[in-house]
Design brief:
single chain, alpha/beta, 23% strand
Amino acid sequence: MDEAFFRVDDLSISFGGIRALEDIGFTMNKGEIFSVIGPNGAGKTTLFNCISGLYQPGRGDIVFKGCSITGKKPDAVARLGIARTFQNIELFSHMNTMENIMLGRHIHMKTGLFKGMFMWGKASSAGREEILHRERVEHIIDFLELQNVRDTFVGALPYGTQKLIELGRALALEPDLLLLDEPCAGMNSEEKQDMIFWIKDIQDELGISILLIEHDMKMVMDISDRVMAINFGKPITIGTPEEVQADEQVLKAYIGEGD
């Protein structure tokens, strides 16, 4: 049997005696969009924090491309090919779009981020490396159609555009697995549709696997290959969007319907 691209086995974590996650387990296929749904406080972001190395689980294992990443620090997880966005925008408002996305290249920089920026344009190894990283970032800016705001301070840009820039910074890490924590939170209908478009393009054109947390049930059902529903830190069900949407326990926990 082939090793799963990404696997979570019996993951559990507690805070002050409160069990935040209990026996969470699932596998992901390469190239898949796998979504995690559940009401507020269900443990979705805690799961992401365990995967990305911000939290150390009390029990269980997280396996990426055949190697356990459980307990690894965030920078080590990123170097292995896992990037994430956050529910709340984590950009530098007094830096422009290009500079913010360039920050995502830090794990690939041999000379160091700020030394490379200082040596920009100079005939040195740091300068040459900087040129290569900027070329990679220019490709991301073109891909996400951010050319008209590349030199604009991100603090002056609309919320939806800032979310797209944060997505671009995650792509700058060149991940194999992208964790998206509520990418459409706070967006209007038009911005949500645009984000759905980009997520599908990332899957289809870049071949990046996506693990998604999202409250918008319609979006989840539209773009996911498979869905896992959790509540009170425990798994309810895993299946196709249609299967999960029809599950009685999901209706009770997530939508608030059913007996």
